[in-house]
Amino acid sequence: MYGLASVEYGEVRCRTALSKSRLPDLDYALNPYVGCEHGCLYCYARATLRDEAKALRWGRFVLVKKGLVERLAREVLRKPKGVVGLSTVTDPYQPIEARLRLTRRCLEILVRKGFPVSIQTKSKLVLRDLDLIKAGKVDVGMTITTMDDSLASMVEPRSSRPSERAEALRRLAEEGVETWVFLGPIIPRLNDSEESIRRVVEVAYETGSELIVDKLNLRKWVLESLAPLLDRLYPGLKWELPDMLRPGSSYLRELYRRVERICRSYGIEYVRFRFISGPEH
Ligand code: SF4
Description:
This protein is an alpha/beta fold. It has a single domain (about 10-270), classed as Alpha-Beta Barrel (TIM Barrel), CATH 3.20.20.70. Helices cover about 40% and strands about 20% of the residues. It has helices at about 50-55, 70-80, 95-100, 100-110, 130-135, 150-155, 160-175, 195-205, 220-235, 235-245, 250-265; strands at about 10-15, 20, 30, 35, 60-65, 85, 115-120, 140-145, 180-185, 210-215, 270. An 8-stranded mixed β-sheet has the order 2-3-6-7-8-9-10-11. A 3-stranded mixed β-sheet has the order 1-5-4, with no helix packed on it. β7, α5 and β8 (about 140-145) form a beta-alpha-beta unit. It is globular. Iron/sulfur cluster binds near residues 36, 38, 90 and 91.
């Protein structure tokens, strides 16, 4: 156990470092941790768990993959080169990474062996690894669902504040790193207003980042996790969400028209995230 307040830490033996990814543009997924202390209420990585009690404790436990670095060092010698997503079901720069440097040690190996890496995070800690990022073929995506720090603190309780994420992205872009903004999930009433979306699009515009947009995905246990907050802020909304979010709904058509209009006003394009199999963050 490593022991930061209110999160339980433990270890799990690593069986595979580079697992095949079915997410767009990624060949492999590398997840240094199981669980994620950022604890985003909408996180559907929890759906990868078998146990409901554990899924609803998402954000309160992190298992560190024991033996990961050694296994990765062996796998890069025999697996074909391909783009590695770092990470797909956890945040590689969540708070414990500051102490353990597990992500950094993996990144060192990948960069040294010439594997392209695509990082996705909600943490300013990514700047710590700027030297490696610049040395390799590494792009960095920052998830920003809202620029409202107070809303983010309710929905993404242990991530860096959105203002800090935007600042990290600016720094990366200034250093010549290829960057992207993941605006997702957009959740009805919480962060779907013109103003809310515009502020995030502005960050993508200012930093010259590609923009990827996604709606809320109601995978297993997501609604249960969001329900207490929705009940407090918008009683009754949780019952409407499944219909609002069904493919082709009038809500979604209007949402994407709004995104389109805002992007056009900045002269940028956006890509809709293609949900295939796994969670993203
Ligand atoms: S969405 Fe990403 S950052 Fe948030 S809890 Fe899930 S894995 Fe962690």
